[in-house]
Each structure stands twice: as structure tokens, then as C-alpha cells.
Amino acid sequence: MSSAAPANRVAWLALPGVGYLLLAFALPLAALLVSSFQGEEGWTLAGYTRFFGDSYNYTVLWNTLRSALWITAICLLIGYPTAFVMSRASGWVQGTLLLALILPLSVGVVVKAFAWTILLRGNGIVNATLMQLGIISEPLRLLFTETGLTIGAVHVFLPFMVLPIFAVARQIDPRLTDAAASLGAGTLRRFTHVIWPLSLPGVVVGVAFVFSMTVSMYVVPSLLIGDRFKTLPVLIARSYLFMRDRQTGGTMAVVLLAIAIIVVVASALLARRLQPEARI
Amino acid sequence: MNTERWARYALNVVAALVTLFMLAPLLVTVLVSFSSSTVFNLPPPEWSLRWYAELARKDGLVSALTLSLYVAVISTAIALVLGTLTAIAVEQGRFRGREAVLAFMVSPLMMPGLVVGVALLQALREIGLREVFPALIVGHVVITLPYITRTVHASLALFNMSLIDAARTLGLSYPQAILKVMVPGLAPAFLTSGLFAFLASMDNYPISIFLTDARNKTLPIEILRYLEETPDPTIAAISACLILFTIIVLVVAERLVGIKRLAQF
Fold it and tell me: Is the dihedral of CA B207, B213, B218, B219 positive or negative?
């Protein structure tokens, strides 16, 4: 640490940024939380007893969590091998793979979701290709189904899974697996005992990213499945934008916020536990 | 060794399919935008530029694009200043809870956008701010700050602080040393984080939807509204323009800092 840097005064430089987020981010969220416990006459849990007393809301919660779990699982399933290949590839292969992730990542969600409405429609490219290959004889219904939503969402969120895993995987020394091999470990054993544990910190970050983004996604479902598929974000938007029902919307917003906070805290705790192993 | 060969082969197939899966939708959108047909068929009956001509006539889309550009540029600029100052404080300052400060600065990325939007809407109403433009700036600085703070902080951690000491020995004051030595050293971090902050702002829907009104819409909101009313390839044309714009920006950034840095979005 530099002796010349006036370390105590430097700390004040954080004030504008932190102050800004306190005022424009933390305070509004706190106010939302507080107001969800306020009724006509003082403090009340009415919003929550109403929310959790209505079995319909469990369907909504289940829809939200189920689609997020599916999308996260598929992203991990195809994202992990991709990140691994990317970490071991060199030159143009690595460059192409990085480009294939960073370009779609940089293009807006609205554009990507729109692209999938073209690809997934009845006479769209996906159906045409599958029929030409003789895999199906009738066009599949993909757009406005959960399958279509999952395909589109995996495309939108996959880079957030691959890039954190890649960042960790590229730092795993290849000599470690060679050493394991020379000690007689087979391919599977080298993976389960060397590569997987060392890449776990990246997996935790990727899963947390994708899950927290998919529980709160709004643009992708509204284009690919429509608002008859009820999730928390859809109902929050509806209750504020069309119904002007702030009580219900506020309660659901707090429930969604709680889910996001649980994911963040759990992943931070997990990451901390994995920390000593991450250092090599 | 045989399993190893198979495993490697399977991995490469997955990676190749993922590449196709990631890029195909963008390619298809660009191709459809040059179609003469009103439906999204490929190959198109004829190639044409009619949707691009249509695009120029859509005042709603043009004014939404203008608003989005203004908001993105201004909020990114503000975030660059606030985020860099915070990153310097966290990296150089000696105070308790520096990690917590960093985590707090990045936390808007992990919070549901709609909830942040709802909360901001209520807060801004409370203080009586109903103008769309300043409200959008307030909201968009919240979503651009995490990108800047995170990337600039990571880059500062690698910056050799003794260069500042050297500059001060040579007679520069502390602020001068920061400006003349540290800022150029951090240029790649400013570029990549500014780029992703800008793109995040251009693309934001969940916060903007609560802060805009019928007359002032940002581009994503206008596109979604347009798609509900008249789903024709005009949107493919504007999407193709946005894709082209993104490619140009990425190529320039890649030339300046390399693609691996871009991977730390």
C-alpha cells in the first residue's frame, strides 16, 4: 500500500457513489418494504396473509421458480462444457467462442427475444429445419409455450453462466490434471476430483446470476409466452401499470425481492466457503 | 485413453452447437430485415430495403431511439465519475467494510429490475419528481454504476500504486498524479465498463417502464409496444441496425483492449 496515498481522506471518495445508491436504490427499496406492511389503519400483515392465503399465488410462485430452475439447470448443463472447452482452446477457437457469447450478450434482450419470436413460430426456421431433417412431420407449437420460453431464455442468459465459469476454469493449471492422471486417475475421476471442485466458485457465481435474473425476467416471457403464463414479474408489472393496485403489487414486489436477496446471500456464503479451495 | 477422446469429442460438439445456437438468432433477424414479405419467412420471396425505408418514417421509433441515446450517454457519464471515485476509495482507502461497500455498489445488478423500478416510482412520486427525463437518469445511473465500479475496481487492484508515488516525487500533487498517471492506466477499464454500462442502459426495460409516460418512451418500450400493435419486419430492421451498431462498438473495443477483457463484462 502506498505510503503517499492519504488513505483516510481517500475513503471519502466513496461518499458520492455510496450516497447516491443509498438515496436512489436502497432507500426506495426500504420504503417499498415498509409500505407493504402498512394498511389503512397502521401496521398490518394483511397484504401477506392475503398473498399467502390465496392458492392461486402458489401457482404463480411455482411458475416463477420452476421456469427459473429449468433455465438455470439447462444453462449450467450446456454452459459448463462450453466454458471448459473455451478455457482449454487457443487462438481463433477461443476467440470465436468468446465472440459467440459476447456479441449476443451485448445485443439487447428485446432484440434477442424478438429474434426468437421469428425462429419459433409455426412456420419458423426451427420447425422448418426439424421437418427438413425428418425429425418431425408436423410443425411443433413452440412460440407461446414453456418450451419456447425456456429456449429463448437460455439464449439470453447463457453468457452469464459461461463467462464466470470460464474466468475460473482458465486459471486451473493443466498440470494438476496431468498429475492426477500420472497417479492413475481416470477421465471421470480427474473431473470429479480435480476440475469440478476447482471450478465450483465460478459455477456458484454463474448459477446465482442466471437464477436471480430468470426469477425476475419480464421482457423474455412477455414476448415468448405472453402474460397468460403468470409469474411474479408479470403480476407486479400488471398490478402497477394497468390495475393501479399498489397494495398487491407491493407485496409481490417484496416477495420477489426476498427471493433475489436469498439467492445473493446464499451464493455469497457459498463463495466464501469455497474460497480457500479457489486459491491455487 | 479412449474415454478421454470421446469426452473431448463430445465437449467440442457441445461448444460448436452452443456457438450456432448463440449466433443463429441474430443472423436470422438480420436476414429477415431484408425480406420484401410482411411475414417472417426465410428465404424471403425477394430481398428488399422496404422495412428500412419504413423505419425512417416511424417517428415513434426515431424519437424513442434519441431519448434512449441521451439517457444512456448521460447516465454512463455520471456513473463513470461516481463509480471511479468509489472504486478508488475502496481500493486505496483504509476503512472497515470495504468489501461490503463494493458488494453494495454491485448489488443493483442482482436485484429484480421491476422491483427497483416500482420502488423508484414511489420514491420519486413522494418527492414530487414527475419529469420523465430526470427520472430516467436517476434510474439508469443505478443500473450503470455497478458495471463501472466493479470493472474499475478490478483494474485498480492490478494498478501499480508506486507509480503515483513516483509522480509525486517528481512534483505532482496527489490529484494531479491521479489524473495524469492513474486515469490513463485505467483507460481500458473505463472503456469496457462504460461500454457495457451504455448497452445496459440502452436495453433497460423493467426500470424504464415505470418512469416513462405515453409521450416519452425509451427504445425497448417503444419496440415492445410496436410489436404488440403491428408485428411486421420493421422491428427486424431496427434490430439489425442495433446488432450492426453493437458489432462496430465491439470491434473497436476489441482492437483497443482485446476480447478477453471484454469477457469480464
Answer: positive
In angstroms, the CA B75 to CA B206 distance is 16
> Are A103 and B29 a contacting pair at CB < 8 A?
no
Q: How many residue contacts between A and B have a Cβ separation below 8 Å? A: 290
Identify the structural domains of chain A with CATH numbers, from first to last: 1-35 (no CATH), 45-278 (1.10.3720.10)
Distance between B25 CA and the closest CA of chain A, angstroms: 6
Residues A228 and A149: beta-carbon distance below 8 Å: no
Q: What is the pLDDT of residues A216-267, one digit of tens each?
A: 999 999 999 988 899 999 999 988 888 777 788 889 999 999 999 999 899 9
Contacts of A114 in chain B (CB under 8 A): 29, 223, 227, 235-236, 239
What is the residue-wise DSSP string for A1-52? Answer: --SSS-HHHHGGGHHHHHHHHIIIIIHHHHHHHHHTTEETTEE--HHHHHHH
Judged by CB atoms closer than 8 Å, whether chains meet at A115 and B28 is answered as yes
Q: Is the pLDDT of residue A7 over 70?
A: no
User: Which positions 50-79 of B are in contact with A (Cβ < 8 Å)?
Assistant: none
Burial of B157 (0-12, 13-18, 19+ CB in 10 A): exposed
Contact B7, A88 (CB under 8 A): no
Q: How far, in Å, CA of A223 to CA of B227, rounded?
A: 9
What CATH number was assigned to the domain covering residues B59-231?
1.10.3720.10
pLDDT (tens digit, 9 = 90+) per residue, B206-239?
999 999 998 899 999 999 999 888 778 889 999 9
Mean pLDDT calculated for residue range B149-177 = 88
Tell me if A109 and B203 make a contact (CB, 8 A cut-off). Answer: yes
ipTM of the complex: 0.90
Neighbours of A1 (CB within 10 A): 8
Q: Quick one: cell of B70?
A: 441521451
List of residues 6+ apart from A25 with CB closer than 8 A: B107, B108, B116, B142
Measured distance CA(A124)–CA(A115) in Å, rounded: 11
- Give the integer Cα–Cα distance in Å for A231 and A233: 6
